[in-house]
Amino acid sequence: MHAQVQWLENVSFKATSASGHDVIMDGSAEYGGENRGARPMELILMGLGGCASFDIVTILKKARQDITDVKCELQAERADSIPAVFTKIHLHFIVTGNAVKEKQVAKAVELSSEKYCSASKMLMDAGVIITHDFEILEAASESA
């Protein structure tokens, strides 16, 4: 895997993934940025959410759960000193579907956390405390 990051101006950068997708990163005005893109640490948090959500969706589909939506809301705390690394991250999954079984969602969250999510494993190995919970919503039925 590889990526490229190119300086645009001030504290704005364009990152290009190996698959050819671009992401703009920028800092706050406080650091000379113009708020034209996500902060690099925000991208790490979003990457964790994407990695874990990928697992959850894949596991639940394999378990033949009728899911219609999965959201992951993340809350993170950072150290007060430089480097301001993540110290705690909480992932809250909102799984929507038809008769989705709580046991299957719990198992999916556990498997993602403990076995499959590379981003989670990497952050935990660096000392970040990562917690998870979930809720299940019944999909809205379509009326005729």
TrEMBL record:
Pfam families named among the record's database cross-references: OsmC
Record InterPro entries: KH_dom-like_a/b, OsmC/Ohr_fam, OsmC/Ohrsf
Q: Which residues form a coiled coil?
A: none
Record's protein name = Putative redox protein
Task: Give the classification, highest ranks.
Answer: Bacteria, Pseudomonadati, Pseudomonadota, Gammaproteobacteria, Moraxellales
